[in-house]
Amino acid sequence: MYRYSEFDTAFLAERNAQFRAQVERRIDGSLTEDEFKPLRLMNGLYLQLHAYMLRVAIPYGTLSSAQMRQLALLAEKWDKGYGHFTTRQNIQYNWPKLNDVPDMLDALAEVGMHAIQTSGNTIRNVTADHFAGAAADEVADPRPYAELLRQWSTDHPEFQFMPRKFKIAITGSENDRAVIKAHDIGLQLVERDGVLGARVIVGGGLGRTPMIGKELSEFVAFDDLLAYLEATVSVWNQIGRRDNKYKARIKITVHEHGIDAIRAKVNERFLKVRPQFKGADMNLLEEIKGHFAPPTFREASVASFESAYTNDPVFRSWVDTNIAPHKNADHAIVTISIKKHGQTPGDATAEQMRVMADLAEEFAYDELRISHEQNVILPHVHKSDLPAIHAKLKEYELATANIGLISDIIACPGMDYCALATARSIPVAQEIATRFDDLKLEHDIGHLKIKISGCINACGHHHVGHIGILGLDRAGVENYQITLGGDATETAAVGDRTGPGFAYDEIVPAIERIVDTYLTQRDSAEETFLETYRRVGMAPFKAALYPEAQANAA
Amino acid sequence: MARAFTPKVVTANDLLEGDVIYQTEDDRWSRELSEAELITDEAHAQVRLLDASRQANKIVGAYLADAVAGDNGPEPTHFREDFRRTGPSNYAHGKQETSTQPRA
Predict the structure, then answer these.
(1) I need a labelling partner for A415 at 20 to 30 A (CA). Which of A326, A461, B65, B99 fits?
(2) What is the ipTM of this complex?
(3) Would the pTM of this model clear 0.90, i.e. be above it?
(4) For position A198, which CATH number holds?
């Protein structure tokens, strides 16, 4: 875990004091809303549909138990007893009051957390593989580099007034769990001839114009990486379009100029920028690495785990679904589902946060992670502790065995909270989860990712869902478009639209018809939804969704 | 030909609470759409919006929202305004909790 330096602590205290004074001046009338709005957004404070919303960064998704407990405290003391974990590994509070926000920020600072650059046209919270440091398939832990990027990008003088926001994701594995191809810059750590560096992907993004990122460089050594990234952001900062916010993201710049032209410009800029990096960044990285040293994994028998696995079917089902391989064979990675059927995806109560913090402290070397898929992870757990963890989770409705299944849905807040939304997402997610739970089909259906966005900005990643749902406003009525075949991993793909959208009360039955079609079409229980879709294509799904059109064409 | 004016209410968010509020005929801010002044004249609507915009130390983001006359005061014509007057659908929070009048 990264520990704040004196510099970090002093910087945050000063920022919070400034914001406290700005809030006071807004309330006493010295600042108008037009003057205040950019200031509050710099500190993560939005005004949404029914209330203010405070977005707190969880850098690279990593939390200690003390930090998780503080998030619970904020939820209880200044919100309505819960928090919402987002698709960018942040947490959002949906009901803060303006004059409480400075106290909330001070409370976050006590545990080394903040809401800086969670909004605005800056480099946002750097996200990372939620299994970082634990995954069996990892080249190196990406979090020290993510922390270096956080320090580099925070208050970076050149990057405070960019054409648009800028999002970076980083992974240490070939198996991409961080959706690096749908970010402005995606980094994959790779090793070449014993030298650690990164493959750099640029120009990915979802939203109005979804694009899969392109390879800018197949390898940049760590020594040069920060200079290379500074050159990349700097090229876009100069030539990115400021005339039209819908064309301002780097994906459009890459698309308009072509990846080869962008690469040439970056290389040219890199030669100018490189001499400014004299190795201080590498010294800092070495120091940061020390903060992320892996725990000393305890050694013990796994017999109690094996006996529980054999004898308790509920435990076995949870292990089969929610546990991933750890780099230490006696350990496991536990994904705690905060998506019990019918609940709001990503919401956790203060009590649940404390329970997860307690489990992390007692069994998981004091570490927790938040995934972009809106779940909570205990990255390092000795297998003999799994039965006790499972028992505790059950008591607090946290033991749902649905990771990677149809009810493990990503959903943005949608029109229940968000001022930008054009339709609701949360109730659609709740109803799909409840429906398939009632049908008891979830485990038979197997690996299937549904992702729902309540507007074209695609916070719910619908383009890369195996089934994507996009809620729109069509002539004053909620209408839902469906895409199929999207993929958020290393084989990233944007899904294909099925055809006309569905009304609010038609969307769940439409999803059911898609799933029925998959179950009929798959060649075995092992063939996943995505594999089946890639083999049979859109036609059978279209036929099931639009029988009238088929009849008319016949 | 300019499009015919459709009835409006002046709505905003409370500066401190963030809650959705509506301008009443007697110049209060109410949490209830049913108490809002339903404006049927375009020139009057602009004046009332100006009245609202001057109260920057109480409210945020005033605008004119479409509404129609109902049995119990103005009713929304679009689902977004229906959600704004009600609150979220996943929890009984916001206006669905015991009401208190906003400070504005």
Answers:
(1) B99
(2) 0.93
(3) yes
(4) 3.30.413.10
